[in-house]
Design brief:
The chain is built from 5 helices and 7 strands. With 173 residues, the protein is α+β, with helices and mostly antiparallel strands. The chain binds coenzyme A. Residues 9-173 form the N-acetyltransferase domain.
Length: 173
């Protein structure tokens, strides 16, 4: 396999002015799972340490984002909904989205975002991260150290709203 092309894009903490760019990337990455701008703005307001963007350092254009926040294991936040508040505990986290603009895929940017998130959560005393794999990304998430776990009936019902290939996955921090 040949070397990957060099990319100028870099991950950095999300800022309030990035939200519109985040929403644009979300629209292209998850065309079947609409989430309102307010959902992204709320996650950022509630837990900025779990929000990162992949951006061009010169133009500041957003080409990717990662959003995660404290959330109980075995529970999935409803899509396109405001959370209101987060649990006080900083042990279990939910990786809500990792998405790259199509132009920014295949360049090796995904792993560094996950590593950056885990480093930050470890420093907060985090123990585990869960997510819902969609878009045929089971193998991708396995490559990032996550494993699919069996879902009980309640979890299965919630997963069904994410599409037939949705799987609940977890990884220890
Ligand atoms: C999933 C996504 C973030 C991966 O980004 P990417 O730029 O392709 O990933 P990278 O180039 O950093 O690749 C990282 C590794 O994962 C592998 N990989 C990427 N997508 C994969 C997939 N769908 N299945 C299996 N492996 C995959 C790459 O081959 C690479 O492996 P390597 O390190 O052994 O070379 C990107 O495809 C995306 O934004 N998709 C749309 C949004 C989405 O579905 N997000 C996940 C929702 S749960």
């Amino acid at each position: 396999m040949g070397a990957r092309p060099v990319s100028v894009l870099r991950w950095r903490p999300m800022r309030a002015e990035d939200i519109d760019g985040v929403v644009d990337v979300a629209r292209t990455a998850f065309p079947d799972h609409f989430e309102a701008r307010a959902c992204f703005a709320e996650r950022f307001a509630l837990f900025a340490p779990g929000c990162f963007v992949l951006a061009d350092p010169v133009t500041a254009g957003v080409k990717g984002y990662l959003v995660a926040y404290p959330w109980p294991l075995g529970a999935i936040p409803p899509l396109d909904s405001l959370l209101g508040t987060l649990p006080d505990e900083r042990e279990a986290f939910y990786l809500h989205d990792l998405a790259l603009h199509p132009d920014a895929r295949g360049l090796g940017h995904a792993g560094p975002a996950v590593r950056r998130l885990f480093k930050g959560l470890r420093a907060l005393g985090g123990q585990e991260v869960a997510l819902v794999s969609v878009n045929d990304t089971l193998a991708f998430w396995r490559g990032q150290g996550f494993a699919a776990v069996a879902a009980d009936d309640a979890l299965r019902r919630k997963l069904s709203s994410y599409g037939p290939d949705a799987r609940y996955m977890r990884r220890a921090i």
